[in-house]
Amino acid sequence: xxxxxxxxxxxxxxxxxxxxxxxxxxxxxxxxxxxxxxxxxxxxxxxxxxxxxxxxxxxxxxxxxxxxxxxxxxxxxxxxxxxxxxxxxxxxxxxxxxxxxxxxxxxxxxxxxxxxxxxxxxxxxxxxxxxxxxxxxxxxxxxxxxxxxxxxxxxxxxxxxxxxxxxxxxxxxxxxxxxxxxxxxxxxxxxxxxxxxxxxxxxxxxxxxxxxxxxxxxxxxxxxxxxxxxxxxxxxxxxxxxxxxxxxxxxxxxxxxxxxxxxxxxxxxxxxxxxxxxxxxxxxxxxxxxxxxxxxxxxxxxxxxxxxxxxxxxxxxxxxxxxxxxxxxxxxxxxxxxxxxxxxxxxxxxxxxxxxxxxxxxxxxxxxxxxxxxxxxxxxxxxxxxxxxxxxxxxxxxxxxxxxxxxxxxxxxxxxxxxxxxxxxxxxxxxxxxxxxxxxxxxxxxxxxxxxxxxxxxxxxxxxxxxxxxxxxxxxxxxxxxxxxxxxxxxxxxxxxxxxxxxxxxxxxxxxxxxxxxxxxxxxxxxxxxxxxxxxxxx
Length: 539
Description:
This protein is of the alpha/beta class. It folds into two domains: 8-279 and 330-537, Rossmann fold, CATH 3.40.50.1820; 282-324, no CATH class. Helices cover 34% and strands 15% of the residues. It has 17 helices and 16 strands. The chain has helices at residues 107-118, 175-180, 193-196, 201-205, 212-227, 245-253, 281-299, 306-311, 314-324, 343-347, 372-379, 384-395, 400-426, 443-448, 456-460, 472-490, 526-537, and strands at residues 43-46, 49-52, 54-55, 63-69, 91-94, 101-102, 131-132, 137-142, 151-157, 184-188, 233-243, 265-269, 354-360, 431-436, 510-514, 519-522. The chain has an eleven-stranded mixed β-sheet with strand order 3-4-8-10-9-11-12-13-14-15-16, sandwiched between helices. The protein has a three-stranded mixed β-sheet with strand order 1-2-5, with no helix packed on it. A two-stranded parallel sheet has the order 6-7. Helix 7 (281-299) crosses helix 9, helix 12 crosses helix 13 and helix 13 (400-426) crosses helix 17. The longest helix is centred in the C-terminal third of the chain and has 27 residues, at 400-426. The chain is globular and about 65 Å long. It starts with 42 loop residues before the first strand and ends with a helix. The model is unreliable at 1-39 (pLDDT under 50).
């Protein structure tokens, strides 16, 4: 079992109208491949329609296309159904407004208010966008509206415990990353929570996969294969990247037969905890029964059938799920089509993708209180010898919170990175592992350390202006953007002027530390990972 989702995996988002720190186009961080030319063309012909985008005000030379449908609205009879193709459209279509986020509550926004508070940002800055079931619309940033450009493509899957988040959170705006490449950046939504990872006895009996959110991600990648060339992208050079739940889902996509040929490379930021997933199709079907009972109670009627649940409003269904399934794990499960086996079993074989993967220095620190009794309850999920080894690992830190954080990050992120890196190597591909340890200057940084999600603004160059910063931020941002872009281009993050990053070698394991002075270091607790892997993950 992994820790409850209500804390750590809420990951942080910047939901603010404030300006961003001037580190990108027009700021002190130049584009990696030189300044992009001004874009005169802001429309493109795609599948019989003309899409009109907008120049990105944050990135000179980049055009953004917002709210492009990649599947039919998953409403009515399509609630809890595989994604269907969108209705064909013709004529001129504006693509200048983001679509609503998928149905959720303020889970991510509340999480982010907590992070903002550490840096002195008032809670009122952080507001939800509109949310709706009709939400399967992706966004594209491109520096080259030329089908001959054949630029690398980077497809982002957001985090949020698979129950929150949206594709255009301000820290995910892709203009500066697109300009820095140059690359084409795509950000993708997917159905969340009870609408995205759910079953019901009727669905199970009919053989309908409960992995609706994962299927949405696959549909978006199919859209990319069919259409990204119109936006200057190369469908043969697609890298899927994501953080937290997005990285977890990528861990499933890497071993999904349905994803074969849809992407070439993967970047997993603070993922790996999918190795601890225990939910099954039967678990999700049982959740459907509990949901039906809860909805019936809320509506004073018996809507326990699948049809009656589909006829119930999204707001009522969502509220009932929060009441009836407070600790439900919204996750992909083995379904015989998109997921053929558990991830421990799948990773025991070869995984045929290039991989860049890592975690942060204090993934769980902000959620830890130093409660010894709570930590002991956490350790009880394993046999005494394994718990004893983890207890020794925690004791290496003089501060209880740090010790507990080290253990949970080791189990959730660090050790899985080594195991997945080895699976990639067995397939003849390369893995590149990192450890992000940058702590922002000042009191806010000391409160949170290198927290879960802290690396995202460095990847996208979207530092909110209330963040504390010094000369390290633009330099580390430039370095990390270069590493990510180089990997998307060639499968190797190294490049001219960058600190050398060694590929992962289980015989002499190293990881790249990403901080004020990036560089390689011995992979921490590597031997312990190999010693405990079977006991921690069951394979």
